[in-house]
Amino acid sequence: MVENRPILNVVTHLVLILGVAIVALPIWITFVAATHEETRMLQAPLPLLPGGYFFENFTKTFFGSGLSGSESAPVWRMLLNSMFMALMIAIGKIAISLISAFAIVYFKFPFRMGFFWMIFITLMLPVEVRILPTFEVVADLGLLNSYWGLSIPLIASATATFMFRQVFLTIPDEMLESARIDGAKPLQFFWDILIPLSRTNIAALFVILFIYGWNQYLWPLLITTDTDMTTIVMSIKQMLEAAEQSPQWNIIMMTALLAMLPPVFVVVAMQKLFVKGLTETDK
Amino acid sequence: MLKRVHFNSSLLPYLLVAPQIIITLVFFIWPASQAVYQSFLIEDAFGLSTEFVWFENFEYLMGDEIYLDSFVRTLFFSAAVAFISMSFALILAGFADRVVRGATAYRTLLIWPYAVAPVLAGALWVFMFNPTLGIFPYFLGFFGYDWNHYLNGNQAMLLVILAAAWKQVAYNFLFYLAAMQAIPKSIIEAGAIDGARPIRRFWTLIFPLVSPTTFFLLVINAVYAFFDTFGIIHAVTQGGPANSTTILVYKVFNDGFVGLDLGGSAAQSVILMLLVIVMTFIQFRYVENKVEY
Which domain holds residue B209? Predict the structure, then answer.
């Protein structure tokens, strides 16, 4: 701090607390809604303080099939689907980006730059702009309603490849020279030197990609029709639709809470890695 | 690009790039080229015959009031989301930058909405603004203001803007705070010695110095509002009422999957691709070089 201004200090904290309150308000309302009974959630004004039905709603939501009277997979199953999808996307992206960055930085071979630009192009083709044809490809390959169909089309990654390329470029050349003198083969060098040296970058990227994978919405919505393959993020929309007939807001909001808990936990628990990953991948 | 010391060509590098390249070809480049191809076709109502029509689909879109409205609406939506979330984040980061102890605690409390999926963000806001039950319509009722975003297009737009901006504050805050903390303290001290008060220092020193970040965030927020807000629109309004919240990405989905207008949807996809290419170009050409200081 440059100078001491007691009044400004108080104002600073007040503004920040107000900001935090505004940002947290939607979550608070959600949490409160998840702690009341169904009938209470039908009377306006809705409560602003938590009630005593948290655990009851939790067990009802977690083991039940979401809303009563709807045919959907149990919520624990949806959470599991989301977890599989997020992990497959995150790990898959990291794995294929690591090896392609390794090839592009450490090998001289024909079409090297051609491959690099091909990977770069993926940056310009988000799934939202090529929905229909991509759906057709996945349908033709028979990947609808499968974990492979959910994850593989999303795991090509220009940003991850660029990031690893950047990391590898900062590793001094002497590393490779000495590894060679010691008789290391390319894959040995990759596994024993490059991977350990880029461990923190891998972890940071994993945090970002896990959130990215978990929060996928449009893609799973298109390619899953089987209720057993529903992801938790998708289910919210179905519940909102059902809510127009039979509003069970306590269950819907409990599901929303469960759906956002894993990625939020990852951000808060691994904040340093998260910040590192965010600033490194997007620039 | 290439290491001075490197391995010689063999089969290995091809095997290493193969997974990425195959996925890129099968799931990115092939579908994108299909979209371009389909955008030149018109299919009859029963899907029995297709006709190659060159740019007719595009010409139709350029004359289509609904599409042009949607275009303008998307621009407005993006500008509003970027402005609200960036100015909110800038103010908070400006204050958080002053905090000596506890800055990390505030950061923790402000960044987690980043992890909330857009469709969930939409669900939370639509619940708060539910016309019959929601907290906000209840309080607005005291002032005689009638909230019903199922009927009122402007209110629906406001609601999706708020939900989209809320989610993006975390990201903007993080980058603004990092940029402000990277400014050398000596500059701020020099300003203080010259008699500039905190607010003046903020506007004449800090704000200009973080302008590269502002520009970078503008691009990122525009991309976010254009492409990542599908979930919010789908959960909150489904483009309604009367198309008042149908942004371009939602329209591509709606025309393609619900309306089954393949040529029209593909032509819209191609236009969106061109937009992404322009935005990516801007991001790499102008942002990359200037963010470093």
Answer: 58-290
